[in-house]
Amino acid sequence: MEKNIQKMMEEIRQAARKRESLGVPGEPETTGDVCPLCGGRGLIPEGDSARVCGCMRQKALEHRFRHARLDGEYRNRRFDDFDLSYYPEDKKSPGSRGSMRQGALKCLGAARTLVQEVADDLPDHRGMYIFGSVGSGKTLLAACIANELIARGREVLFVVVPDLLDELRATFSNKNDTDELTLMQSIRTVPVLILDDLGAHNYSEWTAGRLYNMINYRVNHRLTTVFTSNFSLSQLEEVLDKRTCSRILELCQLYRLDSDQDIRVKRYMAREMFDKPE
Q1: Between β-strands 43-46 and 49-52, what pairing exists: parallel, antiparallel or unpaired?
Q2: Other CB atoms closer than 10 Å to residue 62's CB: what's the count?
Q3: Are the CB atoms for 215 and 233 separated by under 8 Å?
Q4: Are the beta carbons of 157 and 186 closer than 8 angstroms?
Q5: CA-to-CA dists, residue 155 to 40, 54, 224, 225, angstroms
Q6: CB neighbour burial string for 167-186, b if at least 16 within 10 angstroms, e if fewer
Q7: Are 198 and 228 in contact (CB under 8 A)?
Q8: pTM of the model
Q9: CA 139 – CA 143 distance, rounded (Å)
Q10: Is the separation of the CB atoms in 247 and 219 below 8 Å?
Q11: pLDDT means per 10 residues in the chain (278 residues)?
């Protein structure tokens, strides 16, 4: 094992020396699933030793949760992929004085600020509770936050809430290789947690209790948390409970993100028109 580590370290040093001789600064530029910090080796040299790259901790974390990876259309999405043209300037969000475009700009700006604060290890920043109409880009924006932070070597867990609760339940029927305590501990303690689609579930006393346990722990330890939901916080009280919503409010700043039409439908129609034979 020690020989393998030494060999990997020497390969990394050789690559670094080669980049330096060619005048290429910093770490190698890579694409796809290869980590840009360690080149997929899992170790970053520091003098005569090496430290484990953050991507290895990220992979270990994702391995515990079958649904934690950002696949499909959200894979590798960044802030530049958040298209403001889907948010009209001449239409207002319900109950808002500003336009949908202004709301989207506010959400995007807050997301960028959050990523920078986490990347800079600034203390006492609040998370985000992003709510609004179906198909308004909430999950996309949350995915952008996750991908931007992962690219900066931060540990992030992105999970869809109904999938998460199903996975926790599966621990009682031996359908999951990991026990409930291990999963709960990972959710509660991960530096950045993104819970997508909160409210899209029929909450029992058991599931509501598990959610409160996670959120309450993160409030007490000031851990960065992002939520997306189709419900405003007052609406969420009706499907979840008041004490959980109160803790969310303590943990996060509220941001409304609305579009006049379902963006997924818009994109589908655009593809159909583009692919339609003349």
Answers
A1: antiparallel
A2: 17
A3: no
A4: yes
A5: 16, 7, 11, 12
A6: bbbbbeeeebebeeeebbeb
A7: yes
A8: 0.75
A9: 6
A10: yes
A11: 51 50 39 65 72 67 53 85 95 89 97 96 92 95 93 88 86 69 88 93 87 96 97 93 95 96 81 60
Give me 85's structure tokens.
């043209």
DSSP secondary structure, 101-132, as one string: HHHHHHHHHHHHHHHHHHHTT-SS--EEEEE-
Strand ranges in the chain using DSSP code E only, listed in sequence order = 43-46, 49-52, 127-131, 156-160, 192-196, 224-229, 252-256
- Residue linked to tokens 């952008």: 144
Contact 131, 138 (CB under 8 A): yes
Residue with structure tokens 């409160």?
A: 212
Q: What are phi and psi of 122, to 5 degrees?
A: -75, 135
Cα Rg of the chain, angstroms = 21
Q: Which of 79, 57, 78, 83 minimizes the C-alpha distance to 68?
A: 57
CA distance to 68, 97, 168, 174, per residue, from 158 (Å): 5, 32, 15, 23
Write out the two tokens for 118. Answer: 């986490």
